[in-house]
Amino acid sequence: MAIKDLPKDEYLLKGNAACPGCPASQALRVVLKALGQNTTMVVPACCTAVIQGIYPKSAFNVPLMNIAFEAAAACASGIKAGYKAQGNDDTNVLVWAGDGGSYDIGFQALSGAAERGTDMIFICYNNQMYSNTGVQRSGATPYGASTTTTWTGKLEHNKDLSEIMIAHHIPYVASACVSYPEDLYAKVQKAKSIRGFKFIEILAPCPPGWRFPMESMVEQGRLAVESGMWALYEVENDKMTFTGPSKGILEGLRQRKPVVEYMKAQGRFSHLFKPGNEGKMKIIEQHLDVVWDRYRKQSSCLK
């Protein structure tokens, strides 16, 4: 579906408190267009809890419950059980959480809901840091990235939450990026049509946190995918397929763009371009090769 053909209805209204160029708000507009009005959201502590506005007013045109950092998936499970007790199996229950509320603080509830097979959609919009509280590192922060708690560059590679969710053998796992709205829309629609627990992770390049101009947000997301630093795929009933530019990279039909093209415009990586840091850049490139070798094996094994 082309962008011009997306539904015209808006569930994220004007006047919200998002930063200019905010990837979370752009992604959420697409997600709610795919899910429609009959949706209830659960939002833990994250940027979206601010974007929605201050009580008693809200910029969201769907029911929404704010919940503690660690409890989003548990809260959504309770909401789903309440709807089921009323004989309502049609309302979409959506968790919309950042990487802090998914990778780290919220992981135990996320894993538990996946194990139980609760019929819900859990979406992690991943800006690779704790952006709302001052840009601290999270489990999603990539190696070498500078944050307020890793100011000389993070020394560990990020974990891969989508692969952890694949290991739960849930009906649907997908990876998306805000810069590819058609791909995101299609994956949310597919998740909506499947019963059981569904997980989608969206790369959300954050201008203030990653330190690039706000007008470059979409470009940064595309560079992440085109360089292979982020892959677009879906796993449906343990069958893994790649989409968009990632499909071409996996099949050898297109080359990954150099990693430096992706990193050079982001202030969080600027220290890596100073003399003496060539080794760290090499570590990133070598790690990326390992990741894509793993993707090729997974894609073959999971078919």
Helicity level: 25-40%
Secondary-structure content class = alpha/beta
CATH-scheme architecture = 3-Layer(aba) Sandwich
The domain count comes to 1
Q: Tell me the distance between the termini.
A: 26 Å
Number of strands: 8
Low-confidence stretches: none
- SSE order in H/E notation? HEHEHEHHEHEHEHHEEHHH
Largest sheet: 8 strands, mixed
The average pLDDT score comes to 95
Reading off the top of the CATH hierarchy, the class is best stated as: Alpha Beta
Number of helices: 12
Spell out the CATH superfamily: Thiamin diphosphate (ThDP)-binding fold, Pyr/PP domains
The global form is globular
Key descriptive features of the protein:
303 residues; alpha/beta; Rossmann fold; 12 helices; 8 strands
Characterise the protein shown here.
The protein has one domain: Rossmann fold. It is 38% helix and 14% strand. It is built from twelve helices and eight strands. Strands 2-1-3-4-6-5-7-8 form an eight-stranded mixed beta sheet, with helices on both faces. The longest helix is centred in the last third of the chain and has 24 residues.
List the helices and strands and how they pair.
Elements: H1 23-35, E1 39-43, H2 47-51, E2 64-66, H3 72-85, E3 92-98, H4 100-104, H5 107-116, E4 120-126, H6 161-166, E5 172-177, H7 181-193, E6 197-203, H8 207-210, H9 217-226, E7 233-236, E8 239-242, H10 244-250, H11 259-263, H12 278-301
Parallel strand pairs: 1-2, 1-3, 3-4, 4-6, 5-6
Antiparallel strand pairs: 5-7, 7-8
Helix pairs in contact: 1-7, 3-5
